[in-house]
Amino acid sequence: MKQSIYGLTFDQLTDWILEHGEKKFRAKQVWDWLYQKRVTDFSQMKNVNQSLIDLLESHFTLGTLTEEIKQESQDGTIKFLFKLADGNVIETVLMRFNYGLSVCVTTQVGCNIGCSFCASGILSKSRDLTSGEIVEQIMQVQHHLDTQGKDERVSHIVVMGIGEPFDNYDNLMDFLRVVNDQKGLSIGARHITVSTSGIAPKMYDFADEGIQVNLALSIHAPNNDLRSKIMKINKAYPLEKLMPAIDYYLEKTNRRITFEYILLKDVNDHKEEAEQLANLLKDKRHLSYVNLIPYNPVADHPYDRSEKEAILTFYQTLMDRGIKCGVRTEHGTDIDAACGQLRSKQIEKEKARKKKKLQNS
Ligand code: SAH
Ligand code: SF4
């Protein structure tokens, strides 16, 4: 199967071009066609020599993702469901903010971390996405914007779709290098956020990368008992392993970490937990921001969304203790835009269709 050209970083493309007997400056030209002019066919690369176009065509593809569904919400959020070359489906979301256009990308087909509140966790991981498949999600969205003719650009990226990015670390890093490349899409590192469930060893690696990409940590509970109950990853990387990794990251990068905290009714939304969380973060308050996330109910999951009152009390308790925080505003709730929801619905539909087909045969 042909490889996606979007999987190559600029340096890898340059090496490939040199190895195939072409001149170095060709890499810059091809890169420009891919990410500045954003062609959808190799033959559109006008100033590239035909022999290189033929060579590229025989080795690479410009598209392994096909759009299955595109749902647009009233608030302008667009949810894309893409089919991969092997038939798996993934989802990508475009959100509009006053500061720009942000895309939420998927990094794996399913997720093995298995958090008890997450729609993605129900379907265990079948494979990692390649770096090309992650970059292509951005390109597909950008191509969609290009066809609208409004000169809109993807300006922000959140790696918060299905999957654990630090469980697909090398492909994640290649993806970040491609989208951040100044000769290409040039999406600023400070405009990119990677969210992890807390794979501590990789947090050390990420701190050592020397890039300005933001880190978000899904903390969701302020003590091991509760955290292990809702996130089984906490058994492998409990708070006594996680907190030193956070400290290392903060010391090394001096960059703020966002702590994500899903509020689950009567589970982790008591004042007591807010106090514990404030305590846990008190020595790093200057570099912490807590993002309180109203839970998006998932079918067959035992949780409910916290009451408004509880959300406010939680927020106020943190603020009173000097912890900066905010409550996440929701996007596209009318179109299943929450993590993994459209995909799991689609998979359910597929299953029902197959079952019906079996019954009828
Ligand atoms: N695996 C990574 C990134 C993807 S999940 C991680 O867990 O951080 C991105 C965020 O969406 C996480 O903070 C996750 O906890 C949250 N999330 C998952 N299911 C959710 C739901 N049903 N409602 C609200 N947020 C959810
Ligand atoms: Fe995986 Fe993140 Fe969902 Fe947990 S919350 S199951 S780590 S995608």
TrEMBL record:
Compartment list: Cytoplasm
Reactions catalysed, semicolon-separated, are: adenosine(2503) in 23S rRNA + 2 reduced [2Fe-2S]-[ferredoxin] + 2 S-adenosyl-L-methionine = 2-methyladenosine(2503) in 23S rRNA + 5'-deoxyadenosine + L-methionine + 2 oxidized [2Fe-2S]-[ferredoxin] + S-adenosyl-L-homocysteine; adenosine(37) in tRNA + 2 reduced [2Fe-2S]-[ferredoxin] + 2 S-adenosyl-L-methionine = 2-methyladenosine(37) in tRNA + 5'-deoxyadenosine + L-methionine + 2 oxidized [2Fe-2S]-[ferredoxin] + S-adenosyl-L-homocysteine
One Gene Ontology term from the biological process aspect of the record: tRNA methylation
Q: What SUPFAM superfamilies does UniProt report for this protein, alphabetically?
A: Radical SAM enzymes (SSF102114)
Its primary localisation, in coarse terms, equals cytoplasm
> Which residues of this UniProt protein bind [4Fe-4S] cluster?
C111, C115, C118
Domain of life per record: Bacteria
Give the cofactor note text.
Binds 1 [4Fe-4S] cluster. The cluster is coordinated with 3 cysteines and an exchangeable S-adenosyl-L-methionine.
Where, by residue number, is the active site? E91 (proton acceptor), C339 (s-methylcysteine intermediate)
A Pfam family that the UniProt record links to this protein:
Radical_SAM
Give the first-level EC class, as a single word.
Answer: transferase
What does the protein in this record do? Answer: Specifically methylates position 2 of adenine 2503 in 23S rRNA and position 2 of adenine 37 in tRNAs.
Q: Indicate what this protein is called per its UniProt record.
A: Probable dual-specificity RNA methyltransferase RlmN
Q: Which organism is it from?
A: Pontibacillus chungwhensis BH030062
